[in-house]
Amino acid sequence: MMGSALLQSWLKHDHLFSKVIVVTPHQESVTPFQDADRVCWFAHPGEVDLHPDIILFAVKPQVLPQIISLYQRFLTHNPLFLTVVAGFARAFYEHALPHVSLIRIMPNLPVRVHKGMSALCANAAATPAQQQQCESLMQQVGRVIWVENDEQIDVVTAVAGCGPAYVYLLAEALEKGAEHLGLDTEKAALLARQTIIGAASYLEATDQSVHSLRQQVTSPGGMTEAAVAILQQNRQFDIMFKEALNAAMIRAKQLQERT
Ligand SMILES: NC(=O)c1ccc[n+]([C@@H]2O[C@H](COP(=O)([O-])OP(=O)(O)OC[C@H]3O[C@@H](n4cnc5c(N)ncnc54)[C@H](OP(=O)(O)O)[C@@H]3O)[C@@H](O)[C@H]2O)c1
Questions:
Q1: Global model pTM greater than 0.90
Q2: Which atom of ligand 1 sits closest to the CA of residue 157?
Q3: What is the mean pLDDT of each run of 10 residues along the chain (259 residues)?
Q4: In whole angstroms, what is the distance from residue 59 CA to residue 180 CA?
């Protein structure tokens, strides 16, 4: 999903790549891109007889250790390696691919609609020009920040990588609440969905802080204030989120220990 989402966006810009090689065991995964003359498919990296400037890993975490050493053959031309794979620190790649120029990327699902939030973390070997190249690529699909280390990539994953799930959970809760108050399923779903879409679009269209936007919808003594008072009783909403993000960080460490 993430690899094809990025490729789909990048292919829209003719100037980005003259040729793209997709390596995957399944040729049918490349079918959506076959109309693009620039895309070719190989089942195995050993079959690739070209020297790419950029190599992107977008496999599931459990697949990466099985395939990474197959990419040592490309190191002679010092390409830039990019990876969106969660849970592997830069040291893992540096061990498997000696002297690699590497940038870890943590994108999130809205890259699909060019509204992604991506964090980038380079290793010492990645040159300023390579860093600029990676930043430009990820800017095609949303906003970009640089972070300093792998720990901060975990923070970004906990907040922005997992973040769409928190927003959809909120939408599900709103939907269930609307049904509980007597609306039919279809109307409840529309209310929840459009409220999230509208709030996010308005946030994007204004320079105001989220705090000030929230205050605008919270008249003293009104309905919103009554509802927010329940959500924030003893700051429980803030505390719940802090605990949720901590749980994601702990899980990140556990997953890394397994690798
Ligand atoms: N989804 C997200 O929101 C998100 C966000 C941040 C980071 N990520 C990271 O992105 C990575 C991919 O996640 P995903 O959700 O996009 O998974 P996915 O949809 O399962 O994509 C994995 C891709 O790897 C391909 N593949 C399988 N075996 C391969 C092999 N031996 N060599 C080369 N390619 C192979 C698959 O090809 P076929 O389709 O042909 O099987 C598929 O296209 C994960 O490591 C995840 O941590 C995902």
A1: yes
A2: 6
A3: 94 90 92 81 94 97 96 96 96 97 98 97 98 98 98 97 98 98 98 98 98 97 97 96 97 84
A4: 41
